[in-house]
């Protein structure tokens, strides 16, 4: 019998969350962001749930090829554009739209031989200082691109650093609007947090929104708001079983480093999931977990293949009992990946993306 750990990808939840994103920006088209192998869920596994999107946005040419091999004929956007000149050949062959974030990418395009002019998204660095041309250089880049026979249509994009937090987006919107106000072309500006939190601003919604985390059912601004607040459903459940139990007396310690010391008699379950499965090692004592759909806590350190959980008072729990690390338990109880991530000092994004290679994964339609 294989180890009992299993990840389940919920097609219905993906579909629901995509619809939710669409409702937030009803007049915009939706890029489903599927970079990093669909935030760890697997491109092939999420495809059915997200096929209602208007396009798929990702980074990797290999991932773009995988989306095309699934039969997707609608737009695909490379969020970082090309990395070297020969990537443009694949863009021509697979009809990929691509971001232009620097003058070097314009140079590459200018020498590219194609019969099929490209649709490009010219990215502005409106304040995040990661990718994009600064506002004062943006217009010159647009003019250069506009003169190239290799370019068909130019859309305008930028990305927010603080759409999920108190600093907000006003300073970046002001920079973007000032530099683009008389430029033609579609706009793509909003990630999940901007689409959900700044919903009343049509300029922010633009022509294309780019939700990622929300379509996987995680709140972009947790803990200020949780997934339930945004009516999002978890697209991934990570579940396993108890493989051993131990009865402790006061003073007994648990796991490596003896970081947990029992204050009174208690019962613990040893669970088949560890950091090699993607469960964060920083999730120590107190991290929430569901046993038979009932909320309890991790005790002691996470090890490579196991964690230990408190099952004192959970009289039905024993060897073989269901343990939900995040997502939805069989009895319908939910444990948000955001809550687990917070206990481990990280974000839901990282947990999804770090799901262990060895974890068998199924799709639930
Ligand atoms: C350019 C771009 N757009 C959209 C997204 C989606 O962001 P989120 O997952 O926060 O919705 C990302 C993700 O980092 C991104 O890099």
Provide a compact summary of the structure.
The chain is an alpha/beta fold and 365 residues long. Helices cover 27% and strands 24% of the residues. The site of pyridoxal-5'-phosphate has 12 residues, from helix 9.
How many helix segments? 12
What's the rounded overall pLDDT mean? 97
Which stretches are low in confidence, meaning pLDDT under 50 for 5 or more residues running? none
Number of strands: 19
Beta strand %: 15-25%
How far is the first residue's CA from the last residue's CA? 25 Å
Query: Ligands bound here?
Result: pyridoxal-5'-phosphate
Key phrases:
single chain, 365 residues, alpha/beta, nine-stranded mixed β-sheet, eight-stranded parallel β-sheet, binds pyridoxal-5'-phosphate
Explain this structure to me?
This protein is α/β, with parallel strands linked by helices and 365 residues long. The chain is built from 12 helices and 19 strands. It has helices spanning 11-24, 35-39, 43-50, 61-69, 87-94, 103-110, 135-146, 170-180, 192-197, 202-205, 337-343, 348-353; strands at 6-10, 29-33, 55-58, 76-78, 97-100, 118-124, 151-158, 187-188, 208-209, 236-248, 253-254, 260-261, 266-271, 288-291, 294-297, 307-310, 322-328, 334-335, 361-364. Strands 1, 10, 13, 14, 15, 16, 17, 18 and 19 form a 9-stranded mixed sheet that branches. An 8-stranded parallel sheet has the order 8-7-6-5-4-3-2-9. The protein has a two-stranded antiparallel sheet with strand order 11-12. Strand 5 (97-100), helix 6 and strand 6 form a beta-alpha-beta unit. Helix 7 (135-146) crosses helix 8 (170-180). The longest helix has 14 residues, at 11-24. The model has no long low-confidence stretch (mean pLDDT 97). Bound molecules: pyridoxal-5'-phosphate.
């Amino acid at each position: 019998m294989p180890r009992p750990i299993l990840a389940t990808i919920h097609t219905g939840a993906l579909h629901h969350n995509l619809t939710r994103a669409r409702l937030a920006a009803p007049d915009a088209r939706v890029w489903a962001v599927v970079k990093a192998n669909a935030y760890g869920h697997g491109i092939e596994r999420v495809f059915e749930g997200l096929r209602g999107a208007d396009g798929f946005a990702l980074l990797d040419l290999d991932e773009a090829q995988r989306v095309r091999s699934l039969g997707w004929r609608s737009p695909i956007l490379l969020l970082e554009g090309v990395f070297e000149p020969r990537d443009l050949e694949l863009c021509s062959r697979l009809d990929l739209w691509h971001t232009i974030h620097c003058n070097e990418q314009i140079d590459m395009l200018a020498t590219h031989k194609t019969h099929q002019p490209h649709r490009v998204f010219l990215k502005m660095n409106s304040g995040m200082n990661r990718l994009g041309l600064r506002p004062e250089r943006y217009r010159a880049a647009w003019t250069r691109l506009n003169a190239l026979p290799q370019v068909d249509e130019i859309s305008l994009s930028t990305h927010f650093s603080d759409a999920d937090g108190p600093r907000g987006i006003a300073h970046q919107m002001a920079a973007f609007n000032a530099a683009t106000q008389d430029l033609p072309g579609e706009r793509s500006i909003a990630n999940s947090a901007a689409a959900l939190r700044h919903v009343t601003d049509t300029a922010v919604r633009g022509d294309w929104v780019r939700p990622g985390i929300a379509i996987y059912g995680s709140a972009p601004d947790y803990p200020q708001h949780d997934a339930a607040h945004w009516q999002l459903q978890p697209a991934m459940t990570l579940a396993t079983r108890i493989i051993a139990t131990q009865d402790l007396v006061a003073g007994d310690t648990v796991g490596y480093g003896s970081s947990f010391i029992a204050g009174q008699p208690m019962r613990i379950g040893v669970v088949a999931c560890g950091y090699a499965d993607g469960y964060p090692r920083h999730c120590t004592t107190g991290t929430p977990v569901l046993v038979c759909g009932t909320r309890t806590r991790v005790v002691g350190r996470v090890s490579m293949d196991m964690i230990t959980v408190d099952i004192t008072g959970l009289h039905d729990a024993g060897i073989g009992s269901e343990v939900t690390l995040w997502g939805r338990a069989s009895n319908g109880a939910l444990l948000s990946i955001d809550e687990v991530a917070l206990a481990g000092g990280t974000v839901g994004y990282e947990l999804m993306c770090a799901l262990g290679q060895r974890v068998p994964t199924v799709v639930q339609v």
